Amino acid sequence: MIRQAKGKTPRRPPPKKPSNNQKDPVGVYCRVRPLGAEDEECCIEVISNTTIQLHAPDGLKANRNGEFKETQYSFKKVFGIKTTQRELFEDVAKPLVEDLIHCKNGLLFTYGVTGSGKTHTMTGSPGQGGLLPRSLDMIFNSIGPYQAKRYVFKPDDKNGMEVQNQVDALLDRQKRDSQTTVPKTPTTRRVDPEFADMISPEEACKADGVDEDSSYSVFVSYIEIYNNYIYDLLEETPFDPIKPKPPQSKILREDQNHNMYVAGCTEVEVKSTEEAFEVFWRGQKKRRIANTQLNRESSRSHSVFIVKLAQAPLDADGDNVLQDKNQVNVSQLCLVDLAGSERTSRTRAEGSRLREAGNINQSLMTLRTCIEVLRENQMCGTNKMVPYRDSKVTHLFKNYFDGEGKVRMVVCVNPKADDYEETLLVMRFAEMTQEVEVARPVDRPICGFAAGRRQRNQAFKDELTRRLEERGGPVDGDSPTVLNQLLQSFPPLPPCEISGPNDDVTLPRLIEALEKRHKIRQMMIDEYNKTANMLKSVLQEQDSNVLSKENFIQEQRGKLGEKDKMIQNQKNEIDRLEKKSKMLEYKIDILQKTTNIYEEDKRSLQQELESREQRLQREVSEKRRMEARMQGIVTDAKLKWEKECERRVNAKQLEMQNKLWVKDEKLKQLKAIVTEGKTENRQPQRPSREKDKVPAKRSASPSPVPTAAPVRPLHRRSHSAGGERWVDHKPTTNVDLDTVLQPNIPNAIKVNAPNEKALSKCDKYVLTHQEIASDGEIQTKLIKGEVFKTRGGGQSVQFTDIETLKQENPVAASRKRRSSETGPEGEPMEGDWTDVETRCSVAVEMRAGSNLGPGYQHHGYTKRRKP
Ligand code: ADP
Ligand code: MG
What we know:
The protein is of the alpha+beta class and 867 residues long.
């Protein structure tokens, strides 16, 4: 909103910022250009006058798993390839020009990738003028006759507009005329052949409802924003061929009404379409030259053409512009040709150019961000900061979005396949932009003077001229005619020439005539007074009538005001509710999305649950099988262990019995030694069978475990070979085995029966005892012991070790061990064996895997110290 608002007069209410609650969405239009001659594939189809459909190009389709992607986008209106520049103008720009003339601001920009037709749309080409020349033409067609003289309006340097007095304006005009050689206003159309036919007089447009009681002036500026720098394209810089000055960038400022403007930017007052377009073309040329000189690409710059319309009411006479700055209204229309919206990668820029490209995209990015935040703020009622200041383009147009004005955007698209992906981005931006709302500009209050001043003034002037021409002299009212009429209504006066001193006819006749005239006059006065009084009363009556009518009107006005207020309140309420509903819709949308996500989660969780349950089921059945198997194993193991235990118990029992037997044996030997001491020469008697019955029975358990493997006849030396002396007790019953496996103890006293004498000389004792094993082999046992002196002076042997040797029985060939009762010497064999059994216990255990070889295990019954 660009207006003069300094020092408000009480007549005009101060323009509040968002002075109305009414908002309009940004008008987004889409223009599809025809496919270029070199392009083949068309990706855009216009399916209605508000909708287009995008098809992914063939190559892209293949990339996305053959997925056929189609998307539709809707706009306020879609213009297909056959749309003429005029049609586009009528729909898009004409309303903005009408607004401009009615003191409202407008912003129109073209958006799209390079080559999509932005410049074609905005500027056009000869014979096909774009929105810009057409807008200029419409402005001048509308305000043409009501334009102020040059320099009546004069921009100050703070984005404001002043009204100069006539003298100053005249002086300025004279100065201009003397300075410039160019004709001040081209009187003929088509000045420059370069832009000939841009404006066609046949297609002239005109705004309705132009305030004829105002005076107008048009000012134009033209800037370029490149790399986030602002350049004034209309600045007249004296050309220095020696040291050409690089263009100076301009800065943005905020005026007292918080409107942004380019500080120190040239504003050229123009009086006709041709002049205005000429100025634009001058800037365009300058832009082209600068781009060539500085090696820049024009597609990366934004160009902004600003048309400012100043208007002020005529004074009460309808003669001159009112000399009151506060009555000046300035509205502006910005026509923006934005830089190409493509990504940097597509511009193939390198080095410093890349940086520039980045910046250009940055400013478009900022535009996108601003639109995004604005939309969010409006839809969700948030108050996020809109980053207008991040780029010059958005900063310059800030007031349109947070103030008021009409914003329109023409989205230009090229349907070629190469542009497809960029076009998608453009479409998304366009979609978002349509959801942003901008405050609708309010109608300006009209000036307090009676309307039709200009016409009356003109009519008066016309009439004056006519009459002057008619009479050829100064006109002084209508008095002669009225006088004549009045004079004619009186009776004529008689001749008043006195013939002589005695003429007494003339005077009385004159007196009579005058009296008559006086009477008539009196009558006329009376009549006049009467009529006047009548008129007065009628007027008074009318007055009171009018007064009552006025009162009535006042009353009605009051009511109307109340109604208005009510309507306003209701409107506010509606607005509020609409906003709320929008917000709720937004929330619903979000919730819907959240629900979808949750449902998706739920589904996947359920699936997982099912699969886990199945797994669990499987595991449970697996477990059951395992259990059954384990049960079997446990039972088996139990059985095995029971057997094992039983076996071990038996072995232990046997061992214990053997120990018991050894003890018994010791006791017996001790007894024998004792008895031997008494009967010196008596041969040791074999203990009677009866005597040994009990211990024999005690060891009745299967002492010799049958060995499956044969004993190899190995020569084995006695462990007892050493320095000690041994008593070598070999009972006479022993079979002589001619084997090398014979205990051979050197230095031993050999006895058939132990005697005290021998024992007293030795400290070791060994008994060689033979028996037949169950497999018929002879088992030789070496029962070893230590000799101790007893307290009574005798000797005692403590058994410490038994060694078992096995050998095939040499006599078994002639005799079966257990089938016959008698041996070769006629001695009962069984008794002999039994006798042996009573002397020594034998334990040969067969244990699989024993490291002593199959069937052979050496048992020591006592804790053994190796001799
Ligand atoms: P931009 O400014 O977006 O880079 P231009 O306006 O320069 O694109 O357009 C590129 C070319 O396409 C120009 O030669 C222009 O004449 C042509 N063109 C663009 N739009 C149209 C249209 N609607 N009809 C015919 N030609 C067009
Ligand atoms: Mg262009």
